[in-house]
Structure formats: C-alpha cells, structure tokens
From TrEMBL:
It comes from Dyella japonica A8. NCBIfam families: UDP-GALP_mutase (TIGR00031). InterPro entries: UDP-GALP_mutase, UDP-GalPyranose_mutase_C. Residues 152-349 form the UDP-galactopyranose mutase C-terminal domain. GO terms for cellular component: cytosol. Belongs to the UDP-galactopyranose/dTDP-fucopyranose mutase family. The lineage of its organism: Bacteria, Pseudomonadati, Pseudomonadota, Gammaproteobacteria, Lysobacterales. The keyword DNA damage does not apply. SUPFAM superfamilies: FAD-linked reductases, C-terminal domain, Nucleotide-binding domain. This is UDP-galactopyranose mutase. Keywords: FAD, Flavoprotein, Isomerase.
C-alpha cells in the first residue's frame, strides 16, 4: 500500500527541465506530483512552437542541447528522438563576419595572416596579457587573447549582455568561450550535440505524460502558497521570490525577443547565430531553420535584446550577488519540506544538461 506521503502529491513549482524531471522521477518511485506553472505552457524557457508561418521557433532564445554526460543523454533519449546539430556562431566586427569563439581562421581573416596551429599558439602567447590570479572575466580574456581581440569581440558585448564591464564579472562566465588555435568553429565542443527531433515542447510532454503527474498552467505559486495539501514542495523559481524579498533582491539579467519572418528567403544568415558585439541594441540574431533542419520557403529569426528589467533569465555572476544568495540559501536550509533546484532557485548559470543531471539527485533526496 502507498504511504500517506506517496499518496499526497508533491507540489512542483515550474514546468521547465528541473521541475519536469523531478516530477517524473518522483512518480516513477511511486509518488504523485502536481506541476504548476504561471505561464500558458510547459517547457519553461525551452518552449518551442510552430509560428504563424509554419516554422518551428524557440520562443525564449535558441536552445541547443550539448553534454559530455552520456547518462544524461540516455535519460532524455527515453522521451525524444534526436537530430545531430552543432551550433556555429559568427561575430560581426567592423562589418565583417568572423568565426566565434576565436579560432585560427578568425586570426587569419582578421589580421590577413596564414598561421598554422603552432603559429596561432605563438600568436596568442605573444599578445596575451598575463593576469594572475585571473579573478574577473576581463582577466580571463586578456590572459587568453590579449587587448585587441578583447576590445573587438568581448568589451562591448559584455557591457551589452550583462550591463556591466568585464572587470565587474567573476571569471567563470568567460570559461564557456575559450580561444582555439585549431580551426574548430563549433560553439561547443561537447561530445554529444543534438536537438530534439520533434521539438522541446514534445520532449516535455513525454516527460510529463504519466497518470500520477497532473499539470496546472496559469497558476502563480504566490496565489496558492499554503493552500495545497502536499507532502513536499519543489521550487524552481527565483529563491528571493520564495522568501518574499526579505533581503535585497539578487540581480538577474533579462532578455527581450523580437521575432520576425522573411517570406521566400531560404536562409537569412550562414549559421545559426550571429553576434553583434559592437553594433545595434540587440546582441544577436538566430535563424531557427539552421537549428531544426526544417525545410520551408521562408525563414524565421529572433533578435535578442539584453535588458535589466523583465523576467529573470541569468543570475549575474558577481561576488556580492553570491553573498546575497548565500543569505537566502541559509533560510532555505531551515525549510525541511522545500527543495530548491534549478538555475533561478540555486542562483547558478546552469546549462540544460546540468539541470537535467541535478534534478534526479534532488528527487532521490526527497524520496530518501
């Protein structure tokens, strides 16, 4: 017979990766779960849909799945077929397009050189500005590629993306985009790089397709807090919101999306995403047909505008923000029946695979 706890649904706040995977894990262990989300849809920021023109688009910026964790890939493969996809990005500098992250071809095109791999390594060694210890994003980039490349590709882009100078951000945020002496022009180098064959939303529908999982949309946790009879709450929203902003709010970076469609245009740009580090208010343009492989007579794009106000997307990696989160985390430890998991709840810049990897562990702690 089920225990009282297993027969009382766990309340899962948020239908993104963290909440959906935790819900699935709980019901497979014999529990029940009620997933709520204040949006009109499941899948969180990974939500995709066919637009009015018949093109599959990602509503909240492009999402490409990449991981070195074979077990994470195998876990999600239970719920989707995959298409291979390696994301490529170009950066616009002085009106010309260059491979990004910076690699040997970037150097050769930018400086009109003909470097081989050892020559590129020697170039980086010659121009780099040693920074030890490398504490900030600026330190990491200058230590890697030197002043000129920093100013061309990183200085203004960082200000646009984060609303701060690179010297004001922790070093970790720069580790995602290292320079390369080879000609590998993939944005990521993970061993597994794919995209769900039928879209992210269907992936989430399959994860949540269990008799003991109920999903309630357009439900704001703040409006029902304390009302539901639940054995456990799993919270994936901003941790400061859960504690009703009892301390100063840790800052987040938001985004605004401008979607558009171009009829009778096979492709708008050569790669999935083009960055605009020095020009325009938008930071990038993504063309979705590159990601999905879809065939269509027209093409759909999205421009991303980083901004301070709006829904939270990215925790801002600064020491003072981390200290403020730690104060909230201390309060979280005093909540025995609440589990905080995910990018916003843990104030961490997690990739999708990291969230998927963390969610089963959170479920096991609940079950245990």
């Amino acid at each position: 017979m089920p225990t009282q706890e297993s027969s009382t649904p766990a309340q899962i706040v948020g239908a993104g990766f963290a909440g959906s995977v935790v819900a699935r894990e709980l019901v497979e262990a014999g529990h029940q779960a009620c997933v709520i989300d204040k949006r009109l849809h499941i899948a969180g920021n990974a939500y995709d849909e066919t637009d009015a023109h018949g093109v599959l688009v990602h509503r909240y910026a492009p999402h490409t799945f990449h991981t070195n964790g074979g077990h994470i890939f195998e876990y999600l493969s239970r719920f989707t077929e995959w298409l291979p996809y390696e994301h490529r990005v170009l950066g616009i500098v002085d009106g010309k397009r260059y491979p990004f992250p910076i690699n040997r071809n970037t150097l050769n095109q930018l400086y009109d050189m003909d470097l081989d791999e050892s020559g590129a390594e020697a170039f980086f060694e010659r121009v780099r500005e040693p920074r030890e210890p490398a504490l900030t994003r600026e330190d990491v980039v200058l230590n890697s590629v030197g002043r000129d490349l920093y100013e061309k590709f990183f200085l203004n882009h960082t200000r646009k993306q984060w609303g701060l100078d690179a010297s004001e951000l922790k070093a970790g945020v720069a580790a995602r985009i290292p320079a390369r002496s080879n000609i590998d022009d993939r944005y990521f180098t993970d061993t597994l790089q794919v995209i769900p064959k039928h879209g992210y939303t269907q992936l989430f529908e399959n994860i949540l397709d269990q008799p003991n999982i109920t999903v309630e949309l357009e439900v704001d946790f703040e409006n029902i807090r304390g009302e539901a009879k639940t054995s456990r709450t799993v919270y994936t929203g901003p941790i400061d919101a859960y504690f009703k902003y009892c301390f100063s709010r840790p800052p987040y970076r938001s985004l605004r999306f401008e979607h558009g469609h171009l009829p009778n245009v096979a492709h708008y740009q050569k790669v999935g995403t083009v960055n605009y580090p020095n020009d325009h208010a938008y930071a990038s343009i993504t063309e979705f047909k590159h990601l999905t492989g879809q065939r269509h007579t027209g093409t759909s794009i999205v421009r991303e505008y980083p901004q301070e106000d709006g829904p939270p997307y990215y925790p801002i990696p600064r020491a003072e923000n981390e200290a403020l989160f730690k104060r909230h985390e201390e309060l979280a430890r005093q909540e025995p029946n609440i589990t905080f998991v995910g990018r916003l709840a843990q104030y961490r810049y997690y990739n999708m695979d990291q969230v998927v990897g963390a969610a089963p562990a959170a479920a096991k702690r609940i079950i245990g």
